[in-house]
Design a protein that fits this description.
alpha/beta, 17 helices, M1 Pyruvate Kinase, Domain 3, Pyruvate Kinase, Chain: A, domain 1, elongated, 3 domains, TIM Barrel, 6-stranded mixed beta sheet
């Protein structure tokens, strides 16, 4: 089994959701060893007490394996739902009239409560309402302050509290509910590395979350609504990362549009230097089967060829019968894709032009030099992680060994493409930087005696945002004897 002191044998990261099937310390460790680089905790289910126990299990891996762990807390967001029905379930017939109103009385095949006043303010005649993940389609025919009249375009069975999607309008709802605020405070108290914000519709939705986080964690916006796709550029400017959340996106948009939008989101995120995660139903059949379909394997491979930073497992690892096997399968797919001789050419179909800064220019130069001189790795020193993000954006052909004095930084870098982050004491001068880079490269298996290594750092040392040094060294092997106590 590969030592976790060494980088994974692939550059794309794997984000695994934890749940009933994977909450034990034994299974979390198995997922970690099978290839999970980061763990998602879904705040839509379970208690805070249960989540705190899971966080403890994840962090315990750091002591056992000497490798930083990454935790993403995914906030539920303003999930829209219909009310209750007499008997718990009704059958809606195509062509019938169906009312959504403000009356809390249990509904029937003619009407049901819609307990979200914001929708009454936003909807217009002609808009669609999608129920139960799009299985039932309603078309608005008439609007009133307390009642929405619709025509059933696609009928079917509908039961209590089923979800509602409103794809055609921007609903004036805050992205953070009271539950989300409580969950966010808990997540920050637990030392969350990333906070995922659900059902983002516009850039303003992100501002309140960023204020509440206060720099204690990085912020990821889930792109799962058409309104967010339309304002993607503005959202990307103010978040730390994005997720292509194909579940709700595939409900609110025609399914044939989702692959194109996925590629657009990945491309724009990469061009702006924002990590991007592709998620939902990647290996869906492995919830019940020990092996995926060929189409699912191709789906994962496509995201990797497009240069996504991470691919995510949802129910496959959270509630499925084969969580460890699902992670291992994703790991094997990634290794196979990245072994393709054409992989790097395909990844660089997206032209990630550097910003007009010294740090960006040097990151681009480091990736280019690595290819030209056949270096075995790029090593960078960083306090905030910004240098690592810049180099990762260039998708270099060699591993990126990131050395940082801050454990929080090492943890946050766990979803970045190609990054192997190590917490270590900072350096104070140029000679110390060279010596430590050599020793750590040898210790972490990214170079051997005779190999060339590219170093990046900022002078004066320990100053965030000061990347201005690029240096090439040759490893001698002597440094390995000096690594103790790093």
């Amino acid at each position: 089994m590969q030592s976790l002191l060494h980088p994974r044998k692939r550059k794309v990261r794997i984000l695994a959701t934890l749940g009933p099937a994977s909450a034990s310390p034994e299974m979390i460790a198995k997922l970690f060893l099978a290839g999970a680089d980061a763990f998602r905790i879904n705040m839509s289910h379970g208690s805070h007490a249960d989540k705190a126990v899971i966080v403890g299990h994840i962090r315990a891996l750091e002591k056992e394996y000497g490798h930083a762990t990454t935790i993403l807390f995914d906030l539920q967001g303003p999930k829209l739902r219909v009310g209750l029905f007499k008997g718990g379930k009704v059958e809606l017939k195509t062509g019938d009239v169906f009312l959504l109103d403000r009356d809390s009385t249990p509904g029937d095949a003619k009407r049901v409560e819609l307990p979200h006043h914001e929708i009454f303010l936003a909807l217009e005649v002609g808009a669609r309402l999608l129920l139960d993940d799009g299985k039932i389609v309603l078309r608005v025919t008439e609007m009133a302050p307390e009642r929405i009249t619709t025509r059933i375009e696609v009928g079917g069975a509908l039961s209590n509290n089923k979800g509602l999607n409103v794809p055609d309008v921007v609903v004036p709802m805050a992205a953070l509910t009271e539950k989300d605020r409580t969950d966010l405070a808990f997540a920050l108290d637990q030392g969350a590395d990333w906070i995922a914000l659900s059902f983002v519709q516009r850039p303003e939705d992100v501002a309140e979350a960023r204020r509440l986080i206060g720099g204690k964690a990085a912020l990821l916006a889930k792109i799962e609504k058409p309104a967010a796709v339309e304002r993607l550029e503005e959202i990307l400017e103010i978040v730390d990362a994005v997720m292509v959340a194909r579940g709700d996106l595939g409900v609110e948009l025609p399914p044939e549009r989702v692959p194109t939008i996925q590629k657009q989101i990945v491309e724009r995120a990469r061009m702006l230097g924002r990590p991007v995660v592709v998620a939902t139903q990647m290996l869906e059949s492995m919830i019940t089967s020990p092996s995926p379909t060929r189409a699912e394997v191709s789906d994962v491979a496509t995201a990797i060829y497009d240069g996504a930073d991470a691919v995510m497992l949802s129910a496959e690892s959270a509630a499925g019968a084969w969580p460890e096997e699902a992670v291992a399968m994703m790991d094997r797919i990634a290794q196979s894709v990245e072994a393709d001789p054409n992989y790097h050419a395909r990844v660089h179909f997206t032209d990630t032009k550097p910003d007009s800064t010294t740090a960006d220019a040097m990151a681009e130069a480091a990736a280019s030099i690595a290819r030209t001189i056949s270096a075995t790795a790029i090593t960078c020193f960083t306090s905030s992680g910004s240098t690592a993000r810049r180099i990762s954006r260039e998708r270099p052909t060699v591993p990126l060994l990131v050395l940082t004095p801050k454990l929080a930084t090492a943890r946050r870098l766990g979803i970045l493409w190609g990054v192997h982050a190590v917490r270590t004491r900072d350096v104070s001068n140029f000679e110390e930087m060279i010596g430590k880079s050599k020793r750590m490269a040898l210790r972490h298996g990214v170079g051997h005696a005779g190999d060339r290594l590219i170093l990046m750092a900022g002078v004066p040392f320990g100053t965030p945002g000061s990347t201005n040094v690029l240096h090439v060294v040759r490893l001698t092997g002597q440094e390995l004897k000096e690594h103790s106590g790093e």
